[in-house]
Amino acid sequence: MRLVASDIDGTILGHDGKISARTIRAFQACRDAGVELVFVTGRPPRWLYPLEEQLGHSGVVICSNGAVVWDPAAGKPISSTALDITAVFEARRIIKSIRPDALFGAETLHGFHLEPGFIENETSELLGEFTPAPLDRTLTAADAVVKFLAITREGTPDEFLAEVGPAVAHLVATTHSAPRTALLEMSVPGINKAVTLAKYAESLGIEAADVVAFGDMPNDIEMLRWAGHGYAMASGHPEAILAAGRQAPHFDDDGVAQILEAKLAGEKV
Using CA atoms in the order 27, 31, 36, 38, what is the torsion angle rounded to 10 degrees? Predict the structure, then answer.
């Protein structure tokens, strides 16, 4: 175990925004043992504060499902892969033709663009930070869109992905990480957590066989398959569990911490 790569939401971070004390101790024990830590998330850079505030993590974070490699200490990207703006609008057109009720958002390196109605909760802090407006009014060719989002209030995330994913596959790679909300996350074809993590590990001279990875949702599948030791949370999505081949105990039971503790103790898990 030379590198630990962990998803954040649903893997180490709960709905209450907290990382357990046991998990924090396990990550610190990895650091003390000389194991590299990298967090690999669908979150944008502006939402990494739980890592900084609770874990004191200042190392590399792979954000936006692999589209951004972020340096928290410098507060800037090390690298990024952005969608062509024409692909964004063509994907929007196709999705809208399939699901007329769909609404859209776009995550860029400098902020968030969202259409009116994209967020239902009028008290959301996002609405205080970003003003909803049609994307064709706010997005320009100069914007580096690292994640394109589509949401619908009907059906499940799996149903929405199955319906839309194939139709836009020539334009964007589509996945989801929402347990219940039908929210799709789209990026440049060929970009996912595994691709970017593999490049990062290679830069450190670390092979996949020496990587332990944790995740819980469909956007983690490629990473869990790539890592020599990929663990899906027992509380995770069935497809992630199937892809990983290994399970960490349930999130509520500090599953990541349990696996790390065992590995640091030399146990086979």
Answer: 40
The C-alpha atoms of residue 169 and residue 179 are separated, in whole angstroms, by 22
- Going by the DSSP 8-state scheme, the letter that residue 249 receives in this structure is P
Instruction: Give the Cα separation of 214 and 237 in Å (integer).
Output: 13
Pairing status of strand 61-63 against strand 229-233? unpaired
Tens digit of pLDDT per residue, the chain (269 long)?
Answer: 999 999 999 999 999 999 999 999 999 999 999 999 999 999 999 999 999 999 999 999 999 999 999 999 999 999 999 999 999 999 999 999 999 999 999 999 988 999 999 987 654 666 667 889 999 999 998 899 999 999 999 999 999 999 999 999 999 999 999 988 999 999 999 999 999 999 999 999 999 999 999 999 999 999 999 999 999 999 999 999 999 989 999 999 999 999 999 999 999 88
Helices (H), 47-112: 49-50, 85-98
- In terms of phi and psi (left: phi > 0; alpha: psi -120 to 50; beta: otherwise), the region of 17 is left
Distance CA(24)–CA(20), nearest Å, equals: 6
